[in-house]
């Protein structure tokens, strides 16, 4: 209650209310009368009875003493990141949906033995708890088949069956992108922009291990989710929001604009077309702090042209410095990817 009462005073209050009380040192054993069993079932209920009779107006109007108090930070607030992701996707033309977490067997991905089944389902369409959000969104697409273009998403839980106890709830972010001649790179760009807005930059897209047309998305070594091209005009994606929360950051690093001019150079390499651009870019940027940016300028068969921008923060670059960095880039690409200057 925030105040100390004598044991005798607490016993008298409870006995006057019809409770039977026995004491043992500083502990009270309280027997609840039959006419109070519906509203007194917890130790806190007993304390409330004492406080009510003692007088709420006598209790001090101060907060309870706390030994530790963690200051609030938006960086640790799950709801802040959820809302930020929602606002970003809505700004880019997506519409948020709220679908049922219960699905029918036809909408369930995987065998029913691996799903959480409901003992008393409301209908045949609400028998299992979903393991993924994508089928529910695809159902919404089918119900709006006359619309040529759709961009929808949902942030909700998927349910993974455990050997014992309650299912594991995983917060997911899933979306559907539909339009004539929809491109995988459209969705890839949306995910990159979303993660960048959440302070995540170490993103990599790899060939899908499931064999589907699309890509697996990684943050560092953590699998984030996947993009899947279903049809020529239909692409879905699903990301693990728990992994996003693990890497999301509000940290900003200020980089002053250099007072010295840039030097721009185009280099063309003959390189295996299966090698991801992100790996090539990372290799080039890692060769020198003088490399400001790298962009893919042109692709023809197995030849790629990269535009490399050099710049220093404290002096004008000399031809010798650029030549040295260029040679290091050529050597690094040759060593890592067997690339040759074309």
Layout of helices and strands, plus pairs?
Elements: H1 7-16, E1 20-24, E2 27-31, H2 43-54, H3 78-91, E3 95-96, E4 102-103, E5 116-117, E6 128-129, H4 134-143, E7 150-160, E8 168-178, H5 184-197, E9 203-207, E10 214-219, E11 222-231, E12 234-240, H6 241-247, E13 263-270, H7 277-285, E14 291-300, E15 303-310, H8 319-337, E16 340-341
Parallel strand pairs: 3-7
Antiparallel strand pairs: 1-2, 4-6, 5-6, 7-8, 8-12, 9-10, 10-11, 11-12, 13-15, 13-16, 14-15
Largest sheet: 7 strands, mixed
Quick check: average pLDDT?
91
Enumerate how many helices there are, as a single number.
8
Q: Unreliable runs, pLDDT <50, ≥5 residues?
A: none
Strand content: 25-35%
